[in-house]
Amino acid sequence: MRYLLGLDIGTSGTKTALFDEEGNTIKTATYAYELFQPQVGWAEQNPEDWWKACVNGIKDVIEKSNVQASDIKGIGLSGQMHGLVLLDKKCKVIRNSIIWCDQRTEKECDYMTKVIGKERLIKITGNPALTGFTLSKLLWVRNNELNNYKKIYKVLLPKDYIRFKLTNTFATEVSDASGMQMLDINTRNWSEELLKELNIDKNILADVYESVVVSGHVTEEAAKLTKLEINTPVVGGAGDQAAGAIGNGIVNEGIISTIIGSSGVVFAATDTPRFDKEGRVHTLCHAVPNKWHVMGVTQGAGLSLNWFKRTFCAKDVEDSEKAGTDVYDLLTKKAAKSKPGSNGIVYLPYLMGERTPHIDPNVKGAFLGVSLINNHDDFVRSILEGVSFSLKNCLDIIEDMNVKVNEIRISGGGAESSVWRQILADVFQYSLTTVKASEGPALGVAILAGVGVGIYDSVEEACSKIIKGNSMVYSNTDLKEVYSKVYDVYNSAYPKIKNI
């Protein structure tokens, strides 16, 4: 039997997953690490923490699976997108990585828009200037940490730093690179004109490949640390959203995915680049060769429930620990006791600003409509509903872009809650297909690795063989009018609170 390894370098931790060639999970390991917030709206991580998590995870799955390292035929890399990793000439990390949810770069975005122009930026990169993307972070370092900027030898994304540590190769691939805002998504290569106008040396960027291409091989040093076989192929891989989409089988137009992780995403594959003139959703290269995708992003999805749990639910955490149950199961059961509409509370999930549909790094979250009748259950339910409304904003824009919607698949940590799944189906007024994709991004890049080393003929062929939808969640048509009214209130709130 041949095996494939998938690494997913996430925000809260790195998941390492070993699969057989039929897509069955053999063994997984997850190692967590810290997120640093030096100031409000800033978010950083130490790339060495990612590498330690990968080394430990790889060793674990090999040792505990009884699979011979020589039977692992390929490795795929996925990771949090948009992170800025800076290396000097000795290939040492210059500073902590500024990661995807950091919001410090508003001035740099204004500068990019002034120099390039909003419409031209969207035409070249698929997106307007965005605080979360890598380019604005690079410009921020130039403006605020000139000594660090002068030391830069290479700029890498989080997963591509792990590639370097495994293979000693500087490389990236189109899906993650198009989230840096330096790639021309039409040609699927670096934009010479954009880099020139912003005075950025192209040589600091890694070579860019299609996502299924073998980009390096495991070095002797990395093999000793991880117990991998020397020269094991490492493919391009994908940014976490494109990788998760492949893990959900979102490789053809008409099948949409909704993922409720730390952030929330509505993702659709397209056969040609599609653009929203206002740039409210991202248009990026897909990890499937010659395909693209559009993606609406809610910054604070599962993040909202996690924040609420940490801030207001000490008793629930204590009760769940005593009972040996998951605190999120306890909270979503409480949400189910509240009525649709949360007895008047409307939650705006803008804890880290917002991307879709507002592109506003400064807007703050809110609970609106609170009265004496409200209790803890209402607040929890309002979070599940507010995130669902934000995801519906994403879906509405994608439908307006004439993207077909034949099926919606749902996955991610939040989607493991039957209560949240039902709320989302009722808000969307679409039936949802659940996909068992707890290893989603890791499985997605394992599939890419399998294509790269010749186990599968194509990504589409592999997905049709491996990815199967599970149960259906049917929308309750009786709630259409209720949620339509609350959705109108939700949409009316942003203009009223954006300047607070």
Automatic annotation (TrEMBL):
Highest taxon, organism lineage: Bacteria
Site (Important for activity): D8
Gene3D superfamilies in the record: 3.30.420.40
Presence of the UniProt keyword Isomerase in the record: no
Pfam families assigned: FGGY_C, FGGY_N
Ranges of residues in domain Carbohydrate kinase FGGY N-terminal: 3-247
Enzyme class, spelled out: transferase
Catalytic reactions on record: D-xylulose + ATP = D-xylulose 5-phosphate + ADP + H(+)
Record HAMAP family: XylB (MF_02220)
Protein family membership: Belongs to the FGGY kinase family.
Name of the protein this chain belongs to: Xylulose kinase
Organism of derivation: Clostridium taeniosporum
Gene name as annotated: xylB
